[in-house]
Amino acid sequence: MVGRFRRSGRGVRARFDPLQRNLLLSRFDQLRRLLETAGADQPMPPVDADPLEALVGGAGSTAPFEDPALARLFPAAYADPQAAAEFRRFTQDDLRLGKIANAIAARDQLAAAEDGRVVLDLPAAEAWLSALNDLRLGLGARLDVTEETERELDDLDPEAPRSAELLEYFWLGYVLETLVEALAGSGRGSD
Q: Which of the pair, 181 or 56, is modelled with greater confidence?
């Protein structure tokens, strides 16, 4: 089936039709650009920052993101705002760079598969898992998806402004689910 991951002797594989392939390529590019610009509006660390902090990467941003997609991709690690800010300061830049690397890896692998067929080894599958999950989380945040949103599918008007994005959101969930199942060697995603 098109757009579904399956287990194979060399890892996991999937075939995406041209529309699905182009959609994913575009979304991986958008995710990369969003992540690359994340924090651009955040204040830079002071010039006289602690040299040890600069050495270990502790000069990152401490403010939570206002963009709903970025806020979902980088949630607060602690309920306490000060503890959450400290955690962000020491981890957010590395997390962001890892997410960018995963989006680029997934995009490049799909771009190289001109026929839309990808075969992923474990490291590539992990990059895809992360990138697909980030795409779905970001889109879900922008669409304000809730538990009630799934019920919208039954009565979805194809002309409604958010119908295409909702269908994309649920399709991304399906693709992600088949990748997880293929990696686990169970369910719909295995051969």
A: 181
